[in-house]
Amino acid sequence: MHSVILKNDAVGDLIHSLKAINNITQSDANKKVTIFLSKLSQNFSFLVKKPRVDIKILNYNLSIIEKIRLIFFLAKKDIQNVYILSPKNFYYFLPLIFRKKNFYAICIDNLNNYKRPNLFLRKFLFKYEINDRGKIFRRDSTIKLQDNLTSSINKKKFTFDLKITKSEIQKRHFPANYIFFHYKKKIFTELNWKYTELEILLNELSTFCGNIILTKDVGNDDNNFLFKKNFNSYDFKKREYINNDKNILFLDNIVGMDLFSVIKYSKKVVAFHGMMTSIGFILNKPVLDLFHCKINTWNDYQRYRNSFYEFKPKYRGYDFIIPRKNINKTIKKLKFSLSDDR
């Protein structure tokens, strides 16, 4: 049996689908599985690469050409099951075209009777789970919903065990004991935090662990120069190490397996909610999630509450704080959260 998984979205979303993807790829019934990932998560395809698995890459937002190619691909006779794990509108029209194939899907309900797909299109789905964002009380996470959708085809317990050893670069240049911190320029701007606030934050983290490894979103900006000037640094693209005799190591242009390895060997992950906290979760690392919220209306509150329930990990090592524009108030929360790590 040939099954297809549609999962072309961000890295954090991919991580929260790993259990469901494992259910599908480990099923004895599947001789072959094709997984469609996005270019955003292409460097992390090793997370789902297994025997019998073929990986194809699409844009996050499909072009007309990609939609046509996907239709032709699904027309193959040996494809029996299709799993819609990325709830994109186009995908829900595919069961209308391929009536003899089984479509499993995550559907979305929201306020004002919003439904994706609508009730008519849901009739053509073989099985589906509803992510009800309109609920104001606690509900199942996306991990649980996707597991419910796929667990019946595989009874084997899922354990994520990515065997990554330290690279020679890590052994030579990285501290043995460190906190991992990820800088997001967009959120720093929204909080009106500058380099001064970053220094205060990193200095506070240093009191809990002597060494910090710092990363930022991939791409060149003024911070690349600033961080390389003020901290030790290693550029994964240039393979260049700069020693400024600091306890903070900035890693530039780090992606994929290298990023996973750095997080795996950290003492704790401190990062704004997203990809880095998700990686920390799947590696079962202690995580302090800086859950940034911009709440001006009831809809804003509902959206952030939904996001929290959808993606909040459930394990002992996870904690979160909501950062404030006042850095001192954030530090006070951070101290309280990190005090258990001493």
Secondary-structure topology with pairs:
Layout: E1 2-7, H1 11-15, H2 18-25, E2 32-38, E3 53-58, H3 64-74, E4 79-84, H4 94-97, E5 102-110, E6 114-116, H5 119-122, E7 127-132, H6 142-150, H7 168-173, E8 179-183, H8 185-190, H9 195-208, E9 212-216, H10 222-230, E10 232-235, E11 240-242, E12 248-252, H11 256-264, E13 268-272, H12 275-282, E14 287-290, H13 298-311, E15 318-321, H14 327-338
Parallel strand pairs: 1-2, 1-4, 2-3, 4-5, 5-7, 8-9, 8-13, 9-12, 10-12, 13-14, 14-15
Antiparallel strand pairs: 5-6, 10-11
What portion of residues is helical? 25-40%
Largest sheet: 8 strands, mixed
Any guess at the CATH architecture of the largest domain? 3-Layer(aba) Sandwich
Given helix and strand content, the structural type is: alpha/beta
The H-level CATH homologous superfamily of the largest domain, spelled out, is: Glycogen Phosphorylase B
Any descriptors?
eight-stranded mixed sheet; seven-stranded mixed sheet; alpha/beta; 23% strand; Rossmann fold; 14 helices
